[in-house]
Specification:
InterPro entries: ARM-like (IPR011989), ARM-type_fold (IPR016024), P4R3-like_central_dom (IPR006887), PP4R3-like (IPR051137). One of its GO terms (molecular function) is protein phosphatase activator activity. The protein is mainly alpha-helical and about 375 residues long. The protein has a domain at about 35-180: Leucine-rich Repeat Variant, CATH 1.25.10. It has helices spanning about 1-10, 15-35, 40-50, 55-70, 75-90, 90-100, 105-120, 125-130, 135-145, 155-165, 175-185, 190-195, 225-240, 245-250, 255-260, 270-280, 285-295, 300-310, 315-330, 335-345, 355-375, and strands at about 210-215, 220-225. It has a two-stranded antiparallel sheet with strand order 1-2. α4 runs parallel beside α7.
């Protein structure tokens, strides 16, 4: 408070810069003294693992570890990396796994901050731990944390952790296959079911905009719409980063249909998220997924939501029109034929939109081309 509010009113920029340098230098000196103590990390973790530790003492130690890791950014980069490797070797992720199971939101938040600090330093430290048998449970805790309402937007922190952890562009081959396999085998279905069980059936009335009761794996907890949005964002991320693995999952079950139940929610931003999810799938231009969409009539909930929205100009309308534009411009013939022949009556009242007109014209061009080929193949008598 003194540094950010009081001092800027009475000190010039040069003096403030000098004070910041002093603070930074002192932080680095304190962290250096602690990390160079051969017994410091071992003693700290030993106390945190003790079965006799009180909840208050454990809370203070977790917050101390969080501050220690945060202030380590004052060290030179090489020393930061060495320190984080030492912490990893001494079992910091086991400590974090225990912290994430706490009912105390403050120390859970500290635990996620520690994980993010490690991921920003070297994601492979956490990945190396997760691919070990004892580390598998940490990935499960991170997934569960994303659908748990800890408050204060903490589910966004869990989303960011999972994104960095499973970023295919930064994963080495040794980690990539194992982590992706663990996630898809053990956790993807859980996330899909969270969405499906949070959305009303076709015959049910729309749920309250604030929450939905979730059964099954989530044990009747109420899932906030913002959490469902994050789950959908993670699934879109997976479609882009793990196209082959997630395609196998989608083709073997009805996961896409379950995710599209979000179009039945009353919150428009969740309906838009479902449209964005379908747009992400179609953008892969994968013939197997396209056939799957056609076979199981998976664009129906998208078109139904578009029709129900009417002429209201909003993100939902723009999202569906852009989806149809993409299908037309990419010349995805099976989808053009499927949409036109399945939903032409519903879309007729929207023909004042240029996108709908162009889509219909593309379908007619396909028919004319087919007629010309048929005529050319018939011999003259």
């Amino acid at each position: 408070y003194l540094q950010d509010v009081i001092l800027p009113r009475i000190l010039d920029d040069a003096t403030l810069a000098s004070l910041n340098t002093i603070i930074h230098t002192n932080n680095a000196a304190v962290i250096s003294l602690l990390k160079d103590d051969a017994c410091f990390i071992q003693d700290l973790f030993s106390r945190m693992r003790s079965p006799n530790i009180s909840m208050e003492s454990k809370r203070e130690l977790v917050l101390f570890l969080h501050e220690f890791c945060t202030l380590s950014k004052s060290l030179p980069l090489v020393q930061q990396l060495r320190l984080f490797r030492d912490l990893s070797g001494e079992g910091v992720f086991e400590i974090v796994s225990d912290v994430l199971q706490s009912q105390d939101r403050k120390i859970v938040s500290a635990g996620t901050d520690i994980v993010i600090l490690f991921l920003n330093q070297d994601p492979n430290l956490l990945r190396s731990y997760i691919v070990q048998q004892e580390g598998n449970s940490l990935l499960g805790l991170l997934v569960k944390g994303m659908v748990t309402d800890f408050g204060e937007q903490m589910h966004c922190q869990f989303l960011e952790i999972l994104r960095i952890l499973m970023d295919s562009f930064t994963m080495s081959g040794a980690h990539r296959d194992v982590i992706i396999e663990i996630f898809y085998e053990r956790h993807l279905d859980y996330l899909v079911d969270v969405i499906a069980s949070s959305c009303p059936s076709r015959s049910a009335t729309r749920t309250s905009p604030n929450s939905a009761v979730v059964g099954g794996n989530t044990e009747g907890h109420r899932i906030k719409p913002e959490i469902l949005l994050n789950v959908c964002e993670l699934l879109c991320f997976c479609v882009v980063h793990h196209p082959y693995r997630i395609k196998c999952n989608f083709l073997m079950n009805n996961a896409i249909e379950k995710i599209l139940t979000m179009t039945r929610r009353s919150e428009k931003f969740l309906v838009v998220a479902a449209v964005r999810f379908m747009r992400t799938i179609i953008s892969r231009n994968d013939e197997h997924l396209i056939r799957h969409v056609v076979k199981f009539n998976l664009l129906k909930p998208i078109i139904d939501a578009f029709v129900e929205n009417g002429d209201r100009y909003n993100m939902l309308q723009s999202g569906v029109l852009e989806l149809l534009e993409h299908i037309r411009k990419e010349n995805l013939k099976p989808l053009v034929i499927y949409v036109t022949e399945s939903f032409s009556d519903q879309l007729m009242k929207f023909e004042h939109f240029g996108s709908i007109q162009a889509f219909k014209l593309k379908y007619q061009q396909y028919l004319e081309s087919a007629d010309m080929k048929l005529s050319a193949s018939v011999p003259d008598m």
